Amino acid sequence: MNGITLVLRTLHRGERRLAHDLVTVAERHRTEHEVHHVATDLALWSREHVRRLAETAAEHGVKLGEAPDHSSDGVFATLRGKAAEAVVHRPEPGLLLLRDLRELHVTAAENSLHWEMLAQAAQASRDGGLLALASSCHPRTLRQMRWTNTMIKNLSPQLLTSL
Predict the structure, then answer these.
(1) What is the C-alpha end-to-end distance of the chain, expressed in Å?
(2) Predicted confidence (pLDDT) at residue 17 exceeds the cutoff of 50
(3) Contact, 147 vs 90, CB < 8 A?
(4) pLDDT, tens digit (0-9, with 9 covering 90-100), for 20-60
(5) Distance between CA 44 and CA 48 in Å, rounded?
């Protein structure tokens, strides 16, 4: 296994985790409409990254696992909906949201560093395909980070000073 393979595997795992976590946060905070809708949309980006990473890795002779299939999520939608309602009735849903946003931000930041490493390795090895992948996906990861950062900036003052 070479370094590029290692970064591809790490990024694949990281993007899968971020997609999963974004969906989880969207469901957990379903009553926060902006969080629910934006996190759901951002999860689609990470799922696309997972797919593209798997395709690129396959071109390099590396087999990565497939993206999780969320088409069967409807079975659990009712349970998630009830869990989201329960969060609203807890006294500290804002703190839970801040924690979730912080964790999303850290995961996205880690992925961002790996996209940068992949881009640098692609340049060094003159691999145009890898460079195109990183150049296409990394800006979306940066956008995911900007969203979490903006949400934390907007929510923190009121939530933390009202405790």
Answers:
(1) 50
(2) yes
(3) no
(4) 999 999 999 999 999 999 999 999 999 999 999 999 999 98
(5) 6
Residues 6+ apart with CB under 8 A from 13: none
Q: Rounded to an integer, what is the distance from CA 135 to the centroid of its chain?
A: 17
How far apart are alpha carbons 19 and 50 in whole angstroms? 9
Give residue 148's Cα distance to chain centre: 10
Per DSSP, the residues of 44-81 read HHHHHHHHHHHHHHHHTT---PPPPP-GGGGGGHHHHH
pLDDT tens for 122-135 read: 999 999 999 999 99
Q: Are the beta carbons of 27 and 43 closer than 8 angstroms?
A: no
Distance CA 98, CA 16 (A): 21
88: left (phi over 0), alpha (psi -120 to 50) or beta: alpha
Retrieve residue 152's tokens: 């934390």
pLDDT top residue among 146 and 77: 146
Supply 86's token pair: 């329960």
pLDDT greater than 60 at residue 138: yes
